[in-house]
Amino acid sequence: MPTRATVIRTTTMTGDDAVTGARRDVAVIMCRGASRRFGAPKALACVGNDPRPLLRRVADCFTGRFAGGIIVITTGDLAASCRSTLEGVPDVIVVPGPAGGDTALTLALAWEHLAALVPPCTHVWAHPVDVPDIAAQTFVQLAAVSESRPERAVRPTWSGTPGHPLVLPVAMLGLLAPEARSWRGPWREVMERAVADGRIAAPLLVAVADPGVVHDHDEPDAMGGGTAAGGRNDDT
User: Fold this and answer.
1) Among 14, 36, 98, 110, which residue carries the largest CB count within 10 Å?
2) C-beta separation of 42 from 85 below 8 A
3) Strand bridging mode 161-162 / 92-97
4) pTM of the prediction?
């Protein structure tokens, strides 16, 4: 459970760079991948010495942090298992969608759900289901930057490598969602195109002392654990 200091405050922002209305953050856990290299649905897999499935571990990282709770974007065939895995987790919604595509489609699907919420959310913390170990201090650092620049996307880096979670203004998500809906690649590519043509500013990068932001589980090892993928971890 997060400490009081790690909870995002609900504030009203003013000025030229403000996001209209009171701030309301929501976690979006991206859980639609085919898990081809892993060989089984990552969301339901237990890795290392932790008995909790990856989805539960990621959800536990976010539980109680945001006024908007947690939204899990998954596929129709995994929805029931995801709900079972998350039994007892408060303020979580599992949203089934089509299979296929990449993280661009996942966040477009998230936008379709978020657009109908009342009260509306202002910021999304987009996070993949295979990155389960985020330190509390990382949330504090990202929250501070996002609160000071609410109109910008914010991403952590560790040793120069971009990681997760990615903090997105919902207004930015809505702007790019129509393009993302038909884009076959990762959300990162949609953002890069939008930065290149001047529609959005580049994400603010926040250096953190937390290797968990880049430690994902792409391949199971012989003991049922996972291996950290090297290089970029910023497909979203």
Assistant:
1) 110
2) no
3) unpaired
4) 0.86
